[in-house]
Design brief:
Chain A: It comes from Aegithalos caudatus. The complex is a heterodimer of chains A (297) and B (962). Chain A has 297 residues and is mainly beta. Chain A is 3% helix and 57% strand. Chain A has 1 helix and 21 strands. The mean pLDDT of chain A is 84. Chain B is 63% helix and 2% strand. Chain B is elongated and about 115 Å long. About 11% of the residues of chain B have low confidence. Classes of the chains: A mainly beta (297), B mainly alpha (962).
């Protein structure tokens, strides 16, 4: 490779917030001098909505919103056409992350049907003989803190055969009593989900207890919408036949990028839920669902 | 023979007056080459590996430092290598360095904390299996799941999280039917591939390997191997933790300056922090509980990069996380690992340690629950065996808790255990982990608890063994001691299984020896014999029996007392396998030599030890290594030297005779015996003040005869020669003239057999230097040996000269001529009216012949022959390549003439001038030497009767160097 192009943002974590200034350098390394037709840098933020397979047929008929929604976009010309010396050239840049009017900068989120992504793209245009060079670099946006939204909302729960819905043969169920609590269903995204769970009694041996983090993505417009729930991660908190009566900690760290503060817009929604899944040795699966509200502090 | 030689007549008394060195009082404080090497102060301590010189203090007069032993003092490079190379006992070599660095951090544990590394070998050796094992590195099952659920998921969006779960894209590896050794090899391979992946920058692959390995810890099939599996896999985790920590640490290097050991999180740069955070996020998303726990625990130390309180927040969380592990065995080992990491990273955080133990107590009832019991039935594992699997983990947790803990805490722990039905398993761990002093002080309580405790399958003899181990280290209260022994032994003696019995007894023997008399020791030994004899049970218990013997002789080293323990010898009889028997004998003899201060004639000791020595001796065969033989011989010699019957010389001699017949296969012992007998003869002479009575004369002759018949059985020729000479001298000193003659004749006739090369320390070396040395020594003795009345004049000297003449010397060596020159010294000494020395009460030739002219003529004739031989030889050296030798030899001969010849004789005078010139002729003479020689001659000429020397000096030109 003759010429290498690289975009580096200043912060190690690449995390920026609304109102801050995104700064960094474009680095060009080459053994020889570089002839070019100008170097430009583009910052873009967009929401990509994808249509789930099961809905696509119906949905397309109504609406045509599958194209990306732009949140922010700006381009600057960094270097006018000319020559760059051989060796390493660093060109600093700065972008203010400023939204106009009432608009907000959504937080970066990588989901299945909804993707919110921010990128920096550097283009070096070159003469006809050489190919244009492009380098893309993702940076991450965190939304501003939402203090007013956070109210602790502890939940106590009890699971017995009687509390279950969707049971085919209630009689064949083994007896069990599982109690516990979540410290709050309103969660700060940087803090783990926490709580406790006690298997007070269970006729059948416990095989596993898991926390299933689920995202619920809704895409749609006035004409209709599609709502899909998919698993983000599954964290086992108990393995094997745990001791009865002994509280087991519920603890789950929210993964970065794959979670964001609960988001509701006119076009799409991103929500989260957690399932407590108890798997018994006779392959009975008991699930208890808790909707969560995530926010950033 | 154109030349007559004249010996200069000497007056030895006056000469010695003149020549005697001025006596200088020795200052003992000064340097002496044999004193121990002392280094008063070394600037830095970093040299401590090179053991030989660094360790001594400045007190030079104290015990002699043996440079060899100090080299062997733990730091010898071989054992270091061995320790590092041994894959079982050694953690990765850098581990030591890391541990050292940790120690420097001040907060770390001290050296009085028994480290994990010393436990792991023990665990690996103890928990083994012959059953087939399997490794199931099943990657990709997760993946199958995700692809089915989310068919719409595009490749692009595939998360890195999901990637974590498969090692190689979709690979599933299940290795079945592995033997234990295979299994260990596989794990080692994984350890290696972890390091490889890491060094080739495949961090994600490294993490996958670690996750897959820690998953293996949730598998409890072949449960009896679980503790060993734990050891193997946590090694990998340790490696991983170290790699991650060091990687992040290396990212903190700023302008070539690395972080200090006790850095604060503020000084860590953002990139390092981000990387560290990334690791924690990745680990937090591991699906399964057990790998998530282990991997996070492995990198616990990395919390230091993020915040000051990180570790103290993590530890309690990880502790309660273990509650989710259903299998009690898996859980307790997880706790042990957490305690281990905790002790290493933050030993000051005691709370979590206690919490771990209390949580364990809370889940204790699970052990007897259905899930576990069913599992045991399936695996055909008995409860007692199952319970012992817990011991290493509980021991370790308790050891961490007990480290520097106040007694109050220990008492509380004890009470808690008691509340749980006084469980045997817990009690045992308490005894293994808590301070020995703590246990010993409460011995009677413990005995009570052991008796009462709910056995629930845990073998009681193990409890007594643990208690015994504590009592070997710390003393219980004086008043309880006998009762403790009685109570314990009452139980021990009832054990049916010989292995259980001996494991217990072995420990309690030490306690018995420590606090009680030989009567109790005897009883204990008798009991052991009684238990171990049926069905030859001792055959399976040699190590334990050996350790019993060792303990007994450590405490009872008065051998009179030891052998009065009636059962001691019968106990020895249980060692029927020869190699073990010899080992035991060696121990006994080592102890004897170390502790016996005075020589002994106690028949009990002698009999017993002769028996012991005989056993050692009889083990020698054609295959025995030289070193082994040397060691055995040294031990036997040590014993022989300690035997003394005082004035009963006859008895002493018969002891030596008996010893000779017993130890005939070990030459060094025979040599020692000859020396001892010679010494005995000289001792007799000393007692009789040189005047032997008829009886003592006969005794001395018996001693001489002993030596005479023993020497030929030795194989080393120089040993024989020297012993002949030595014994001849002793015989002469004891007026056994014909015997002395016989020795010397034997020596003379042995000289032709001396080979040109001899083996020294396994290497072939020329023997000439040894022969030269021996012959010179021999000549000095021959001076005082009187001629045999029936043999010719100077019979022995002639004989020796003939032998020298006929001996095939090395082709281009001057040894023969050097010897001849030395013979001239002898002959000139013989020509004196009074010899320079005599043997008391033996008339030498000077007295026998009284300066008879015929005798002198004989001497002259001999001298003449010898001189002509020398001159002939000098002539043959006239060739170009031998001129240097000719010069040296000429000067040597010149010096001899100067010292011994009568230079007033003209021909001799002329000869010396010729030799002087010859020495200088070809320019090989050392000018300095020549000048000094000349100065000497001039100085001597000033002495009375030596005026002729000045004339000589004038005739000796000095060759000037061109």
């Amino acid at each position: 490779m003759g010429t290498a192009l690289d975009v580096r943002v200043k912060r190690a974590g690449k995390v920026y917030r609304d109102g801050e200034i995104l700064s960094g350098v474009v680095v060009i390394t080459s053994k020889d001098t570089v002839q070019h037709q100008g170097i430009s840098l583009t910052m873009e933020g967009s929401v990509n909505l994808q249509l789930s397979a099961k809905n696509v047929g119906v949905f397309e008929a109504f609406c045509n919103t599958a194209k990306p929604i732009q949140i922010i976009s700006s381009t600057i010309e960094m270097v006018k056409p000319g020559k760059l010396p051989s060796g390493k050239t660093e060109i600093p840049f700065e972008f203010p992350l400023q939204m106009k009017g009432n608009k907000v900068l959504y937080e970066t989120y990588h989901g299945v049907f909804v993707n919110i992504q921010y990128t920096l793209r550097c283009d070096m245009r070159r003469s006809l003989l050489a190919k244009d060079l492009t380098k893309t670099c993702e940076f991450i946006v965190h939304s501003l803190s939402q203090k007013e939204k956070l109210l602790p909302s502890p939940v106590d729960f009890t699971i017995t055969p009687e509390t279950l819905q969707n049971v085919k043969e209630r009689a064949s169920l083994p007896k069990f009593l599982i109690r516990g609590h979540l410290n709050s269903t309103n969660c700060v995204i940087t803090q783990p989900l926490s709580g406790e769970l006690v298997v007070e009694s269970a006729e059948a041996a416990v095989k596993s207890i898991e926390l299933q983090l689920v995202r619920v993505e809704t895409c749609g417009c006035a004409e209709g919408y599609a709502r899909d729930a998919t698993e983000i991660q599954n964290i086992q908190i108990a393995d094997g036949d745990v001791c009865r009566g002994l509280p087991i900690p519920i603890h789950m760290v929210f993964p970065r990028l794959f979670t964001c503060p609960t988001l509701e817009t006119t076009n799409f929604k991103v929500e989260f839920e957690v399932n407590i899944v108890v798997l018994l040795h006779d392959d009975h699966l008991i699930t208890e669902n808790f909707p969560l509200k995530l926010c950033r502090m | 023979s154109y030349f007559l030689r004249h010996a200069r007549s000497r007056n030895y008394v006056s000469e010695s007056e003149v020549c005697k060195l001025e006596s200088v009082p020795l200052d003992f404080g000064d340097y002496h080459p044999l004193k121990p090497i002392t280094v008063t102060e070394s600037k830095t301590k970093k040299m401590n590996r090179k053991g030989s010189t660094s360790s001594t203090s400045s007190s030079s007069s104290s015990s002699l430092l043996d440079p060899l032993s100090s080299v062997l003092d733990g730091t010898d490079p071989l054992s270091l290598f061995a320790a590092a190379a041994d894959p079982v006992t050694a953690a990765p070599p850098t581990d030591g360095a890391r541990r050292k660095r940790d120690k420097d951090e001040g907060s770390a544990v001290g050296s009085d904390f028994e480290p994990w590394s010393s436990k792991r070998g023990e665990i690996l050796a103890r928990y083994t299996t012959t059953e087939k094992l399997s490794i199931n590195l099943y990657m990709g099952s997760e993946k199958g799941k995700t692809t089915t659920t989310g068919s719409a998921v595009s490749e692009k969006v595939r998360t890195r999280l999901e990637e974590l779960d498969d090692l190689e894209e979709g690979s599933q590896k299940e290795l079945l039917n592995l033997t234990q050794q295979d299994y260990m090899n596989r794990i080692e391979e994984l350890n290696q591939s972890l390091k490889d992946a890491w060094s080739s920058d495949q961090k994600v692959k490294a993490l996958k390997i670690v996750i897959q390995c820690s998953k293996l810890l949730s598998d409890t099939t072949v449960i009896q191997f679980y503790p060993s599996k734990f050891v193997l896999i946590t090694d990998i985790l340790d490696t991983f933790g170290k790699l991650v920590y060091e990687r992040i640490l290396s990212m903190c290097v700023d302008n070539g300056v690395s972080l200090p050991d006790n850095f604060s999180p503020e000084s860590v740069n953002d990139t390092a922090k981000e990387t560290c955070l990334n690791w924690f996020f990745k680990i937090a998303s591991i699906r399964e509980l057990i790998p998530r726990f282990y991997v996070e625990a492995a990198i616990l130390k990395c919390n230091k990069f993020l915040s000051k309180t990180g570790i103290s927040e993590c530890l309690p969380r990880l502790t309660s996380m273990i509650r989710g592990i259903g299998d009690p065995l898996v859980a307790v080992y997880a706790r042990a690992y957490l305690c281990r990491v905790g002790m290493e990273v933050a030993p000051q955080l005691k709370e979590s340690l206690n919490k771990n133990f209390f949580d364990f107590l809370l889940t204790f009832k699970q052990i007897h629950g259905d899930t576990v019991q069913n599992q045991l039935v399936v695996q055909c594992v008995e409860i007692p065996l199952y319970l012992t699997l817990y011991s290493p983990a509980i021991d370790w947790i308790l050891q961490c808790i007990a480290y520097h803990a106040p007694d109050v805490l220990l008492t509380e722990m004890m009470e808690r255990c008691k509340k749980l039905g006084n469980n045997a398993l817990l009690l045992n761990s308490v005894m293994s982990a808590f301070r020995a002093e703590f246990i010993a002080a409460r011995s009677m309580d413990f005995i009570g608890m052991i008796k009462e405790c709910d056995e629930s399958g845990f073998p009681k003899h193990l409890l007594f063994r643990s208690l015994g181990l504590n009592l070997a280290l710390a003393d219980p209260p004086e008043n309880d001691r006998l009762q403790i022994l009685n109570e314990a032994w009452k139980v021990i003696t009832k054990l049916k299984n010989p292995q259980d019995y001996i494991n217990c007894a072995e420990v309690w023997v030490e306690y018995t020896c420590r606090h009680f008399t030989k009567r109790e020791v005897n009883t204990v030994l008798a009991d052991v014999i009684k238990h171990m004899t049926p069905d030859r049970a001792f055959e399976d218990a040699y190590p334990q029996l050996q350790s019993i013997i060792q303990k007994v002789i450590t405490y009872i080293y008065d051998f009179a007392l030891l052998f009065s323990v009636e059962k001691f010898l019968p106990f020895l009889d249980m060692f029927q396998k020869e190699s073990v028997r010899v080992e035991v004998c060696k121990c006994i003899m080592e102890s004897f030599i170390k502790h016996q201060q005075e020589s002994t004639k106690d028949p009990v000791i002698l009999n017993a030890l002769l028996h012991v020595c005989k056993t050692m001796h009889d083990s020698v065969n054609a295959l025995t290594l030289e070193d082994e033989k040397r060691m055995l011989a040294a031990l036997i010699n040590g014993f022989i030297k300690m035997v003394s019957f005082g004035r009963d010389f006859e008895q002493q001699l018969s002891f030596y005779v008996e010893a000779r017949s017993m130890f005939c296969n070990l030459e060094p012992v025979l040599v020692q015996l000859i020396h001892s007998v010679n010494q005995l003869a000289m001792e007799t002479r000393r007692v009789m003040k040189g005047n032997h009575s008829r009886k003592t004369a006969a005794f001395v002759r018996a001693c001489v005869a002993f030596c005479f018949i023993t020497i030929p059985s030795l194989s080393s020729i120089f040993t024989r020669l020297n012993l002949y000479l030595h014994s001849g001298q002793v015989a002469l000193a004891n007026q056994c003239l014909s015997q002395a003659d016989a020795f010397f004749k034997a020596a003379v006739s042995l000289v032709p057999e001396v080979p040109k090369m001899i083996s020294i320390d396994g290497k072939m070396r020329p023997s000439d230097a040894f022969l030269l040395e021996f012959l010179c020594n021999f000549f000095s003795t021959l001076l005082v040996v009187p001629d045999h009345p029936e043999q010719g004049v100077l019979f022995l000297v002639r004989g020796l000269l003939n032998v020298i003449q006929d001996y095939t010397w090395e082709d281009n060596s001057d040894d023969k001529v050097r010897i001849y020159t030395n013979v001239l010294h002898l002959l000139s000494a013989m020509a004196q009216e009074t010899f320079i020395y005599h043997v008391d009460k033996v008339d030498s030739n000077d007295a026998l012949y009284g300066g008879d002219s015929k005798f002198l003529a004989e001497i002259n004739k001999l001298s003449e022959t010898v001189v002509s031989q020398i001159l002939d030889h000098l002539k043959t050296l006239g060739k170009e390549e031998t001129l240097r030798r000719q010069s040296q030899l000429a000067l040597y001969f010149f010096n001899t003439i100067l010292a011994h010849g009568d230079l007033r004789n003209n021909r001799l005078n002329q000869l010396s001038v010729n030799l002087w010139n010859l020495a200088q002729k070809h320019g090989f003479a050392d000018t300095k030497t020549m000048v000094k020689t000349l100065e000497y001659i001039k100085r001597r000429s000033k002495q009375p009767d030596m005026s002729h020397c000045s004339e000589l000096a004038l005739r000796l030109p000095l060759q000037s160097r061109t």
